[in-house]
């Protein structure tokens, strides 16, 4: 099942179920039933405000985020859907870090749950740098359905890979 590269970490049984949906051309249908419409956060400004609202709700004491934007240079091919970067600069005698979050442009036309999942993921990197137990605990604190949304996003990426057509937008 090499065509299920986004689901390679999942069990053989799960991969077989997805392969059956693909064979019956039902994977997109299943996703559309679960998530009927895309979000309306199309601009960088709206995305910035959305991420700031999440940060204010869950990570009040974390360092500030200086920039949040959609980035067309981020590709799924590079195994990235979003990036969190901390750029350090010397200002006076102090070292200042500026945090930036970049989200793949494909997230302009997906359900809000997928955008929330990637925003939560990138916000969690402010506190936890590695993808470890503490990182995923923080993700599920900010979004209790984090793992379900991640799995469904992987299903959508698989659907894009096999059928090549977008479901939303």
From TrEMBL:
> What InterPro entries is this protein classified in?
UTP_pyrophosphatase-like (IPR053136), YgjP-like_metallopeptidase (IPR002725)
Query: Domain of life, per the record?
Result: Bacteria
Q: Which residues form the YgjP-like metallopeptidase domain?
A: 94-153
The signal peptide, as residue positions, is none
**Protein's name according to its UniProt entry:** DUF45 domain-containing protein
């Amino acid at each position: 099942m090499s065509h299920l590269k986004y689901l390679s970490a999942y069990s053989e049984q799960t991969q077989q179920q997805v392969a059956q949906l693909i064979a019956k051309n039902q994977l997109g249908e299943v996703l559309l039933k679960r998530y009927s419409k895309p979000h309306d956060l199309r601009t960088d400004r709206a995305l910035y405000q959305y991420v700031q609202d999440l940060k204010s709700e869950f990570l009040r004491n974390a360092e500030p985020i200086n920039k949040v934007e959609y980035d067309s240079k981020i590709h799924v091919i590079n195994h990235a859907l979003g990036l969190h970067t901390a750029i350090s600069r010397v200002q006076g005698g102090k070292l200042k870090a500026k945090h930036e979050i970049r989200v793949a442009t494909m997230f302009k036309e997906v359900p809000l749950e997928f955008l929330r999942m990637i925003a939560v993921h990138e916000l969690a990197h402010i506190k936890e740098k590695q993808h470890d137990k503490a990182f995923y605990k923080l993700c599920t604190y900010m979004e209790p359905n984090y793992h379900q949304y991640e799995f469904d996003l992987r299903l959508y990426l698989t659907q894009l890979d096999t059928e090549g057509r977008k479901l939303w937008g």
